[in-house]
Write a structure and sequence with these properties.
The structure is a homohexamer. The first copy, chain A, is an alpha+beta fold. Helices cover 33% and strands 29% of the residues of chain A. Chain A has a five-stranded mixed β-sheet with strand order 1-2-3-5-4. The first copy, chain A, starts with 13 loop residues before the first strand and ends with a helix. Strand 9 of chain A pairs antiparallel with strand 9 of chain D, so a sheet runs across the interface.
Chain lengths: 242, 242, 242, 242, 242, 242
Amino acid sequence: MRIDGRNTDDLRPVQLTPDFIPHAEGSVLIEVGRTRVICTASVEESVPLFMRGSNKGWITAEYSMLPRATESRTPREASLGRKSGRTQEIQRLIGRSLRTAANLDLLGERTIWVDCDVIEADGGTRTASITGAFVAMVQAMDKLVDKGALNTVPIRSSIAAVSVGIVDGVPMLDLNYEEDANAEVDFNVVMTDQREFVELQGTAERQPFSKTRLDALLDLAESGIAQLIDTQQQALGAMRKR
Amino acid sequence: MRIDGRNTDDLRPVQLTPDFIPHAEGSVLIEVGRTRVICTASVEESVPLFMRGSNKGWITAEYSMLPRATESRTPREASLGRKSGRTQEIQRLIGRSLRTAANLDLLGERTIWVDCDVIEADGGTRTASITGAFVAMVQAMDKLVDKGALNTVPIRSSIAAVSVGIVDGVPMLDLNYEEDANAEVDFNVVMTDQREFVELQGTAERQPFSKTRLDALLDLAESGIAQLIDTQQQALGAMRKR
Amino acid sequence: MRIDGRNTDDLRPVQLTPDFIPHAEGSVLIEVGRTRVICTASVEESVPLFMRGSNKGWITAEYSMLPRATESRTPREASLGRKSGRTQEIQRLIGRSLRTAANLDLLGERTIWVDCDVIEADGGTRTASITGAFVAMVQAMDKLVDKGALNTVPIRSSIAAVSVGIVDGVPMLDLNYEEDANAEVDFNVVMTDQREFVELQGTAERQPFSKTRLDALLDLAESGIAQLIDTQQQALGAMRKR
Amino acid sequence: MRIDGRNTDDLRPVQLTPDFIPHAEGSVLIEVGRTRVICTASVEESVPLFMRGSNKGWITAEYSMLPRATESRTPREASLGRKSGRTQEIQRLIGRSLRTAANLDLLGERTIWVDCDVIEADGGTRTASITGAFVAMVQAMDKLVDKGALNTVPIRSSIAAVSVGIVDGVPMLDLNYEEDANAEVDFNVVMTDQREFVELQGTAERQPFSKTRLDALLDLAESGIAQLIDTQQQALGAMRKR
Amino acid sequence: MRIDGRNTDDLRPVQLTPDFIPHAEGSVLIEVGRTRVICTASVEESVPLFMRGSNKGWITAEYSMLPRATESRTPREASLGRKSGRTQEIQRLIGRSLRTAANLDLLGERTIWVDCDVIEADGGTRTASITGAFVAMVQAMDKLVDKGALNTVPIRSSIAAVSVGIVDGVPMLDLNYEEDANAEVDFNVVMTDQREFVELQGTAERQPFSKTRLDALLDLAESGIAQLIDTQQQALGAMRKR
Amino acid sequence: MRIDGRNTDDLRPVQLTPDFIPHAEGSVLIEVGRTRVICTASVEESVPLFMRGSNKGWITAEYSMLPRATESRTPREASLGRKSGRTQEIQRLIGRSLRTAANLDLLGERTIWVDCDVIEADGGTRTASITGAFVAMVQAMDKLVDKGALNTVPIRSSIAAVSVGIVDGVPMLDLNYEEDANAEVDFNVVMTDQREFVELQGTAERQPFSKTRLDALLDLAESGIAQLIDTQQQALGAMRKR
């Protein structure tokens, strides 16, 4: 039994609140346990300089935490004058994952900006961001189809993300902050609805790990991501019915 | 009648959701019409260098908008590498107002950091921030009293803030974004529960204004602020009962 | 009687030295007591990107203090790598005031850059900057008329600025540094020659203030600004005769 | 057969030139095909603030590329005024890997700074950096033992790193730049001499990949890393004999 | 005859106005033709970290130009967020020259900050800065002696600076802006009252120059500097008499 | 006899390794004693904005030191977020010298970027950079001629650079780090193969120096530069034969 009563293969409760920022093209509040992230998708009718004339679209992500998302206050990056390495690493991961899920060839020469702003952080903020960002992005694409700017939703596969790790020698799904802080091994996994990998980032925080352990972790991740993709589909289905 | 059906002396609906970020010492979500701001108060057991040994406390504020708080996306200040002049002006205003409301001599050598993060912006974000920040700050002070760190809540007066302005020649209370964008004159007023002024910032956006007009605007502000202080007291009262 | 022997409603001696930087389109050294500011106006035959094609002009201001303008040396902002919030707030105030005084529709697609560089600071640097900047700006506009680039001087009203405040309970006009440092209430007022307000920024530095006090302060400001506008007109008249 | 004539499971020729920067505590030039990186290790007799008094050591890494390491010139980060997200991601990876290899408890309160400067880049610069950095770090530790500052070399396991990827559908070991630019899947793997994982970073550049593919890639990585660790040991052995 | 009627070995008219910023420990306005620089010297009773406990003093300089010192407006370095290479080069030159003139061993553990702010620039701003800065620095040292903080003025030699150059094939003393812009060779020379060199910086702007030419230029510089040192001594003598 | 056994007029051993970075248009590793610098020249088929349409070329230089080029580690400028004044001064010197050596009128509208990266520093890094940079630049120009982009190598004169200085009262050629740290006078001289000066930068580090001393130093510099130009010519001759 884990500190919050879950089994090792349990996700925390997941809730998606669509249209959290009503005027945005896409938006969702994702809550995974006490981790809460506002994800918005904004459509800009142009692409970065290096893609002009390519007839392709672009998707880019930014990630940030409110100063008091964390247990004690974290200084604001705008006050420090620059983004930390951690922030940049996370937003590069989110952007890459979304671009792999999408079909940029069918998006037209436009950019989707995805913003993930963590308002409360209890572990797994980057994976919750990806899972929520996918929903906001698809909602924005749906609106482009609705208004006739696109013929089809330019998605190649659904994606979601989860963390897994080894805590006190035991592989566990969806670590909260306390578990994460004590993990010997820490993985972030992004997968498709076809159970294929999009991103795999594993770190031996305290000690190296064997191939056997890796396989156990990836099995846990796969089962968690399947559930997350179900939750995403229900939210998107509900939004489309309206 | 105004574009959203209000009378010239009507506030928009105001809602305060305390404990919006549960682990923060103080926190509230303030909603004024569609303007929504997360205000948190964080207690740090030290003061800035220039106040060490003074036996006084300090209160400082930071203000930011999520990129998609605005109708179209605004670039993130952490990405630009510096805060805009507007942001700095607003957070200096919030900080000054809170320090005037508080009694720094009774706070002890500690700092209260107040963060105001706008998640949706429809005019009046700086005044909503002040009104919400006061509640978060008092909640944090209450907790210091509860745990015995302070004998008394170090507040000299309650404060709240509202915008007033002249739109199409008519003085109006609590401008929304569309009204604000068309205002000839724009005022931000911070007042106490004793109906005294803490801050007064008025700008002739399009044409200079007379003393008569100024007086009419300040009357509107006074009535609005009285209502806002009532709402604050109800929220604080409810929190203290728990 | 005040520390420097003035009555509460006395301005300090004011002197305007036009053409202080001879090659600039407009320039003046303004001295208000020991506060000295070099104001220059520079004409650039283009406007910022967001105004291209609007057929309107633009006016923008920058403000700075020499390191040793202050009693003890203040670090240089270029050394720190960024402007302080105070500097940005002041230069935004100067720019807004000048734009309200001018008729941008008649300026043509050109920008007037106004630079206010404080060489000695004894209180009231921002209001002295506005009073001097107006003269430098009009001189630059005069030259545009002289060389046929404009038919008329694109000014809607003359403006000047002054500080007022409450020191030891007494409302006073034109605070010097020592008075300002002890003021309970501090106001900066920008008015036109028609005695209408352009900007009003009041702060309760120590304690909130009543409407009665506000009215007394604004009366003082009005009388001071009337005198400053006289001084400006004399300087501009002398320049135009040459 | 690959574009440079290698088999899919061949490393490029690897060469380690120790003492490349003679006055550094540890230094090596690592060449992997045409990829060349200067790795130095510098010992500083203090630790970062957050570790003072912990009786532990710290290891940190910085990574950079000379502007003309790349086929066409890349602007210098010192000229841009900040490190790119890619640079920060890489130097965080190098630092984490080295800290996992080392026993910080036995290092004493000192810091080892590892600098990896790429002078020529033909793919795999981050993995070559790790492989070279390990040698430079151990050399610096050896010197601490030699001069009596440490009793034992504070290493828990040898580590090395390699890239693997899928190019035109074929899993390959140690991608050069051209292969990397065309890879569908791209992995960086850091492993110990016990064939356990330290870091695993895999990205679907073009399309998601299955567990089967993952396993094939990890097998390739394991064989490559075993060879790299042999090469490191020979270099370290030769250095220790002198 | 030169464009402004001078002979090749004529200085422009030089004027020193001491106490230009009365509250500074040392200050002078130096005017060399139309080049005008405000020089101040500020005494700080501490030294930089690397000199603590050395029982020596330190002298450092900063240089800046007001935006409209130049014929057309130059953007402000505080707005750009960093000092240009030119500015840094000049302030390093001023600081080195003053430190060579002074006896840091006799200054005590204090710093003299010298600020040179150019209000009008017509060539030779760096040399005028050095000539003026020396006077401001000595005035500040005199005050330290007057108040008993020092026994003796810690100066080893008087210094002054001038530019020389070759224009249209002719060596000339003290170039104004137009001459400087057309110079083939451009020299800045700092010398003592003993006719010894402190700094020599010569650049072939258009074509290399021979030793014979160099000697001619240095002769011109020597004669100009002798006159400047006379002017400095008169100004310092007058200040000391008061 | 000097600390490393040289006579006062001896250069340290000089070695030029051309094509050190094979894919660059020009590259050389220059070694002067233990000072080692990688110089590359990169051709870009455009010029900076201010030169567009001028039908002229441009040459610009950047200079940097690897962190461990120095005896103890120097923080990386990209980590500090800005280049030091020293770095900017040096790269401005290198760029000016190369532009004087070249004939920009014959280069066509293209830019040559010269990068000088010091991998080991034992005094004289800026002069070694210039001597090496000239070779890399000419090699890049040779390639432009070879591929028909230019008719002739656009060089007006060969240049090389050396340091001279006075140590313990004795004028010496080509100071190493230890000598440089103890020098009373320190000169950097750039000259042509016609024995004419391009740049002369002399500083009295400890005490002013006479014209007699200056002449002795320039004689030493001239003899050293003649030898360096020979070495450059041999390297360029060898490269052209291949």
